Amino acid sequence: MSLNRVASIESFHFVPSEQRTRRGSDVSVRANKLSFNPFPDDWDPPAERADNVQAVDAFAVPKWKRILQVGAAVFYCLFAAGIVFGYAAIKPVLKKEGAYRGVCSGGDGLVDEDTCREIHLNLMFTVAAVGTNVAALPVGAILDHFGPRVCGVLAALFLTAGSLLMAAQRGLLPFDALLAGYLLLALGGPFTYISSFQLSNAFPRHSGLILALLTGAFDASSALFLVYRLVFEHTGGRFGHDRFFIAYLVVPLVILLLQVAVMPKQSYKTVGGMIEEAEEPLPARLPEDQVDETTALLQEEERNHRDELAANLEEVLGSATGDKRAAQQERKNEISGVWGVMHHSTALEQIASPWFILICLFT
């Protein structure tokens, strides 16, 4: 067995012929399941759907809907992804409204009341910041196993619970409602933000722009508390933080509605995933004496499906631009004299070669 040859850039070149040998994985082969339908619609084997939610091709979703999904993600990331990092703006508001005054008024005398309140408020932000970063791991696992819609719904739940705790009257709850509420707001951010990254695969030719919009929305979301503080000062403190967070409940409600009505249940396939599916070789042609009418119809349907897949890939990826980039890269490969030097070596020969050892050392 030898290591598979890979292209130096991700571009769609051709649909392989039937004579090409299969690669190591048999995942994309349809299961041999008895069916009375000569044209089965399901091209994904049951084994592939066992654990993770399977990704969807970008061309399987209308363009207008993909545009709407990207716009919706940027919109709610702007209001929910990183609002806790606007702590510097909301901290003066919380202090003016007496946050932690009851906790610090009966202190032990080691620190004054103002310092005690500062410590509690800073602890609130520290816990939220740590929670935001730690949440990335479970968000990734949930995204892989349940899809972006579940992440979006969880984000709405976290934001709702956090807003209610932030708006709760002080002293009514037996725990620190501000700390718990701010932490829940922080947890809602990664579920909103990280689950939106896969939308860059909805338009592979514009993936950089989409990621830039999402990243910019995340950074800009911290300005939400700044806007609120300006409103608070303009109204002379009448629009308190409890009223603000009650009004903020509109945001998780909108996120929930968008997740159900607009946003994808499954993540979009990467460019590499779509190309790998298209380059999967067709099954070997059966001898003439083993081909009946049903088998011929199935083979014809599979060829038509592959041709349609190739056409859709060209539409999504842009064949002209891809061919130009591929030609430029091929010229670079020829000039370098290094590309392809180990393509015909076995896996053991490649691992024992100086090329592999140097790559490991510099990695």
Description:
- The protein has helices spanning 63-80, 87-96, 101-104, 113-134, 136-146, 148-167, 177-193, 207-220, 224-234, 241-248, 250-261, 271-279, 293-317, 319-336, 347-352, 354-362.
- It has 16 helices and no strands.
- By secondary structure, it is mainly alpha-helical.
- It folds into three domains: 58-261, Up-down Bundle (Growth Hormone, Chain: A); 270-282 and 290-317; 329-363, no CATH class.
Topology (SSEs and partners):
Blueprint (H helix, E strand, L loop, with lengths): L62 H18 L6 H10 L4 H4 L8 H22 L1 H11 L1 H20 L9 H17 L13 H14 L3 H11 L6 H8 L1 H12 L9 H9 L13 H25 L1 H18 L10 H6 L1 H9 L1
Q: Terminal Cα separation, in Å?
A: 25 Å
Number of strands: 0
The percent of residues in helical segments reads 55-70%
Shape: elongated
Q: Identify the CATH architecture of the largest domain.
A: Up-down Bundle
Indicate the structural class.
Answer: mainly alpha
CA radius of gyration is 28 Å
- What is the number of helices? 16
Which sequence of SSEs, written as H and E, runs from N to C?
A: HHHHHHHHHHHHHHHH
Supply the CATH superfamily name of the largest domain: MFS general substrate transporter like domains
**Spans with pLDDT under 50 lasting ≥5 residues?**
1-50
Q: pLDDT average, as an integer?
A: 77
Q: How big a fraction of the residues is strand?
A: under 5%
CATH topology of the largest domain: Growth Hormone, Chain: A
Total discrete domains: 3
For the record, the CATH class of the largest domain is Mainly Alpha
| Biggest beta sheet summary | none
